[in-house]
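Reviewers of the previous submission asked for a worked example of the structure-prediction workflow described in the proposal, so we include one complete record here. The input consisted solely of the amino acid sequence. No template or homolog information was supplied to the procedure at any stage.
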Amino acid sequence: MVAKIKEKIINLLPYRSLRVRIFIIILTVGILCSVVMRYAIMNNYEERAVEQRSTTIQNQLMILANHLVSNNYMLNYNSQEQNYRTSKEVINAELELLSSLYEGRVMIINSNFKVVKDTYGISEGKIIISEEVIKCFQGVNTSHYDPEHGYIELTTPIMDTSATAENGEKNSGDAIVGIMLTSISAESIASTMEVLNRKANILETLLILGIVALAMILSIVLTRPFNRVIQAINEVKAGYSDELISVPDYDETVHIVDAFNQVLKRMKTLDDSRQEFVANVSHELKTPMASVKVLADALLAQEDVPAELYREFMEDIVSEIDRENQIITDLLALVKLEKKVQDLNIVSLNINDLTELILKRLRPLARKKDVEVVFESMRPVVAEVDEVKMTLIMTNLVENAIKYNKEHGWVKVTLDADHQYFTFEVSDSGLGIPEESLTHIYERFYRVDKSHSREIGGTGLGLAITKSAVLMHRGSITVTSIEGEGTSFLVKIPLTYIAQQTV
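From that input alone, the workflow returned the following structure tokens.
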């Protein structure tokens, strides 16, 4: 019960529709692409803006660092000379200007990690030891951007190029006499990012609306061929048309239409076969009844009918009733065989013994026709078959070979097998079958010689029943015949029965 309710709920969900699925896929892909593109553009702009601002300020800091060295700002900080005081005031003014221009803070740190200048005036004389400062003294410039607090922190080495080692070569480690630790505001970048973000939101909204419209249009356009297929199928189902349909828009619709056209052809064939079958059944059942009525009317029309004539008429009536009963019996057997849901009662059976038993039953009929029946077995055969239906196959073929044979004729039954199949062949010296009739002999009520078939009591259903029983065993039946010389039927059936898989 729960499973049924769950199935009904799933059937009601909109995603089962191909149109909805196409719409969702296009919309999802479009939105993801727009979001990724927006993120990439904004992130790329932020990185480039920070890099450009850092490079510009770093260049100015390098120039200022050279001024510090050239004016002995680091070495003679406590000097009272007039020239030094003048240079110091000029450099301090440059530092204040730089700090004010970029809304930042500049600290100058000497080789003892002591702050000798702070544009904020709050850390002078203090010791600063940090990872960035230590790396800068080791010759590695650092740049750190903090988007959360909106600042960029830079370290710039103050290089004294006149410092040399004892061997006369310059030593870059000893040449760094101080560090410039600079923090500048990134509010302008954040403001620009905010403006760009607002514009990106507007653009993204417009883009999503466009994607929604595009997804709706494409979902309708892409599913339109399938709607035409459904419409054509509904027209055929309603009976408005029985023509083959064609929707060549996609390979998928072509495959669907081809499969449907094959089914339609099969339905037409079955319908034609059904109509022909009904007509044949009506004719075959009507003929004996008509004969019975004629005989009964003839008896009723005569007075004082002699007992001999009355007996003769009654024998004819009984014969026609037997014929009617045989037709009905064969029809019921054929209907049962054609039921796809019917299961075979498969058993492991000795085919040699079964053949001997069937021939034993039919030899009295052969002696009446003076027909010799010969059985030739190539090897012992044991197969998985339905005994009743296998008996039906063999009996029909051997009985037909005897009935439709010449006087003093012969019937040869050959049994053989390989590692997969066994073969049951029935050959005779009978009347043979015309070449144009070979493709029709398995049709219901088809008779090669209707007058001769009626004389021997044939209903035209025996071979149709036989073929149905063979196909139920996943086997095959073939026929070769020369008119006036004889006929040979070859039945080929698997030794091991394999049930048909149901999808």
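Residues 188 and 294 are 116 Å apart (CA to CA). We consider this example representative of the routine output the project will generate in years two and three.
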